[in-house]
From TrEMBL:
<comment type="similarity">
    <text>Belongs to the TenA family.</text>
</comment>
<dbReference type="InterPro" id="IPR016084">
    <property type="entry name" value="Haem_Oase-like_multi-hlx"/>
</dbReference>
<comment type="function">
    <text>Catalyzes an amino-pyrimidine hydrolysis reaction at the C5' of the pyrimidine moiety of thiamine compounds, a reaction that is part of a thiamine salvage pathway.</text>
</comment>
<keyword id="KW-0378">Hydrolase</keyword>
<keyword id="KW-0784">Thiamine biosynthesis</keyword>
<comment type="pathway">
    <text>Cofactor biosynthesis; thiamine diphosphate biosynthesis.</text>
</comment>
<dbReference type="GO" id="GO:0005829">
    <property type="term" value="C:cytosol"/>
</dbReference>
<protein>
    <recommendedName>
        <fullName>Aminopyrimidine aminohydrolase</fullName>
        <ecNumber>3.5.99.2</ecNumber>
    </recommendedName>
</protein>
<dbReference type="Pfam" id="PF03070">
    <property type="entry name" value="TENA_THI-4"/>
</dbReference>
<dbReference type="InterPro" id="IPR050967">
    <property type="entry name" value="Thiamine_Salvage_TenA"/>
</dbReference>
<dbReference type="GO" id="GO:0050334">
    <property type="term" value="F:thiaminase activity"/>
</dbReference>
<dbReference type="InterPro" id="IPR004305">
    <property type="entry name" value="Thiaminase-2/PQQC"/>
</dbReference>
<dbReference type="GO" id="GO:0009228">
    <property type="term" value="P:thiamine biosynthetic process"/>
</dbReference>
<feature type="domain" description="Thiaminase-2/PQQC">
    <location>
        <begin position="20"/>
        <end position="226"/>
    </location>
</feature>
<dbReference type="InterPro" id="IPR027574">
    <property type="entry name" value="Thiaminase_II"/>
</dbReference>
<dbReference type="GO" id="GO:0009229">
    <property type="term" value="P:thiamine diphosphate biosynthetic process"/>
</dbReference>
Length: 228
């Protein structure tokens, strides 16, 4: 399994749920992005829902600033909020504008249940737990898209209509933010659980949260495909 540099805590969590991770990062939706076979309607359905998803993910990352215990943790969360609102969502606005869907319509989109379940699960885990409970549920989204983007950039057919999506997640800007999130996550877990974090009584709960968030990512891709 390829391991881009997102840190050892992420690697341990990912390797703790190999089946779910595979179902997420090798989903039929992902393969369709790479070979260009994904129906356009499925992609648009996904992208419009994803705009709303990012609104709520920006709120969840903002909660990270509140739950942080060091300035470095605050910095990484604030930078991620910035990347989300000012860069990642721009892809959605740009792509939808090209099809005549303006931002007010995006903001007013009715959420599908799979979308709502995921973002509210993340918010609740973050509200209930401490900083690392929050990062554990945010991690599958960040590092999963990082892995998917890098892999697709290497195998995607040259004329896939989804190149803009792939380049957004494979690009240095996104990968650099993810590398700093990975470093921060390692430091945050060492600080609270120590270097033997896997034997901490809290580890199973963190793994459970990470695994559930990964399953909710699978549900999100399924929702995209259902929008055909
Ligand atoms: C369903 C879904 N899952 C993950 C991402 C990717 N993503 C969402 S927030 C974030 C962190 C900072 O950019 C990243 C990478 C997405 N767009 N949609």
């Amino acid at each position: 399994m390829s391991t881009p540099g997102y840190g050892q805590v992420f690697a341990a969590l990912r390797d703790g749920c190999p089946e779910q991770w595979q179902a997420y990062t090798r989903h039929a939706f992902v393969e369709g992005l790479g070979d260009g076979s994904l129906p356009r309607a499925s992609f648009m359905h996904y992208l419009i829902q994803d705009y709303v998803f990012l609104v709520h993910f920006s709120r969840a990352w903002s909660l990270g600033v509140i739950k942080a215990e060091t300035r470095e943790e605050m910095q990484v969360c604030a930078a991620t909020v910035n990347a989300l609102i000012n860069h990642e969502m721009a892809l959605h606005v740009r792509t939808c504008a090209g099809l005549g869907i303006d931002e007010a319509a995006l903001f007013a989109t009715k959420e599908e249940v799979a979308n709502l379940a995921y973002t509210r699960y993340v918010m609740d885990a973050g509200l209930q737990g401490d900083f690392i409970d929050l990062i554990a549920v945010l991690a599958p989204c960040c590092f999963g898209y990082g892995e998917i983007g890098l892999r697709l950039a290497g195998v995607a057919v040259a004329d896939t209509p989804y190149a803009d999506w792939i380049v957004t997640y494979a690009g240095d800007e996104y990968q650099d933010v993810m590398a700093s999130v990975g470093e921060m996550f390692d430091a945050a877990v060492f600080r609270r659980l120590g270097p033997e974090f896997r034997t901490s009584p809290r580890w199973q709960r963190l793994q459970g949260r990470f695994t559930t968030a990964t399953e909710l990512e699978v549900g999100f891709w399924d929702m995209g495909l259902d929008g055909r």
